[in-house]
Design brief:
Mean pLDDT: 90
Order of helices and strands: HH
Helix content: over 70%
Oligomer: single chain
Shape: elongated
Structural class: mainly alpha
Distance between the termini: 11 Å
Length: 57
């Protein structure tokens, strides 16, 4: 269950990066930050939904 938690932390950092890129008008950085947020966030949420929290063995 550690990997989805790490990926969720990456998604949170990507959200902060997206806000920062938007504030600085860095549109390429914004695209990458939003893409990272979408991919890592989706993986984290779906893994927690599929496996349950805490993980059921």
């Amino acid at each position: 269950m550690g990997l989805p938690i790490i990926f969720a932390l990456v998604a949170v950092l990507a959200a902060f990066g997206a806000v920062s890129a938007l504030k600085n008008k860095n549109f390429l950085g914004l695209v990458f930050a939003v893409g990272t947020l979408a991919v890592f966030g989706w993986f984290s949420v779906m893994t927690i939904i599929n496996s349950g929290y805490p993980a059921v063995h």
